[in-house]
Structure prediction request, 263 residues.
Amino acid sequence: MVAWPRIVRPLLLLALGLGVLALGVGIGRPKVDLRPERRARLADFPELSGLAYLPVERALLLVGDEGDVAVAGLDGRILRRRRHANFDFEDVVYDPEAGRVFAVTESERQWCEIGLSDLSLTILGAVPWQGSDENIGIEGVALAAGGGFWLAHESRPAGLVRFRPSNGDISDWVISDAASVSGVTALPESGELLLLSRHRGLRLLDASGKPLGSWKSLPGRLFEALAWVPGEGLFLGTDAAHSEILRLSASSESALREQLRAK
Prediction:
């Protein structure tokens, strides 16, 4: 029988103890990263620009820069669609209390409602943003705690502004340190915001727009849209000739928030 040196046994016990501790930490804290877990290429839906989750249908509502509107399954399969010529949709949001879907256009700067039954379009009014360039305007929309909506402005300045359609008021500017932003969404459990930037990635903000963590990189630079789907996770859309929808690996809101809060 081989006689092991006395120092070997304590080292083995220490390594075993550290392994058990690491396993316990792994069990108690969900593993989260910001890599895509699933990809779906959209059939004939160019330049995807906005996503919203429809809980009744458990599906996604898509809008595009070329006036396309569609309902798609979580697997990316288009269920029904309609095109509104000469409209440059930038984002869409579902208001669960009202059971209504609202969209915003960039170059026209219009606030619209999309009918869920037939994907019809109703113009509700103008967004009172006086930017210097019609192609550097509103890029995203999200529900705002306390009423109204957050609009994500692409650049010069990049950031968020609160919009109240009832009186056409804009207020509460929140300037981002990113050169540009491309989308925003509100997390349903916490009311916190996810801000999307093509160049910086994702950032978690509180309900008033205050950063709760640093920017976290994403695998790619074409991300233009985002939506949270309870029980599934964060879905991202790419703006390209052949758009894609990707689902990140974090399936719980608390796990994603923990990841985005990390230093």
